[in-house]
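Shall we go through a protein fold together, starting from nothing but its sequence? Label the sequence line and the structure token line clearly, so we can match residues to local backbone shapes. Would you write everything just below, so we can both look at the same thing?
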Amino acid sequence: MLKGRRAVVTGSTSGIGLGIARALAAQGAKVMLNGFGEVAAIEALKKEFPAYSPADISRPEQVRALIREATEKLGGIDILVNNAGIQHTAPIESFPPERWDAIIAINLSSNFHAIQAVLPQMRERNWGRIINIASTHGLVASPQKVAYIAAKHGVVGLTKVVALETATTGITCNAICPGWVLTPLVQKQVDARAAQQGVSIEQAKIDLLSEKQPSKQFTTPEQIGALAVFLCSEAAVNIRGAALPVDGGWTAQ
């Protein structure tokens, strides 16, 4: 379905981003990966995805360089997936200002810089798909996640504005809002919870999900990838500015 299309997925060396990259590639797209990781793991991924950039997307100039490099290596960019994100939890009174700045830079500002850099070529071809990976926390809040939630709410707002500004073109912009997805980062949280409470890993998973996600099932990166592919399809051409929850009923409560 996506043969001949060119895609950039930020933060795609693991987790949701890698799931999306693989889903796009499976449909024929050429994909540039971006992100950090252990050298051996990155080298293995480069065999699967020859186009790779280690750009630090907390830095605007490197975000723009990523778009330039991908345009050169792939011959253009038709699909941009802004996925990279970091997290830090603490009450607002003790939230480190430097962590606020880093989370806003990576989770929100990088989306703006990438979209601004890629839109001219999408307008020239009158075709493009911009997919921002927000979060259930772009729709609702939880304590001790002030920067993450502010950033993800910002991503949802950014998505709507871009969708409106491209509404009469062949470019769409939407946000996917996952709840709990079983990524390596979340697995670490599960492991820590199990150790702290002296329970099994499986029990820790159930306890974690029970707090927010009524289905008591994790979403998988592959499922998020499948939704991203759908948003790139002609069937989704009039889905614009949507914030699509994939959260097991979290935001239905």
User: Anything to note?
Assistant: Residues 88 and 153 are 16 Å apart (CA to CA). The chain has a mean pLDDT of 97. The two ends are 36 Å apart (CA to CA).
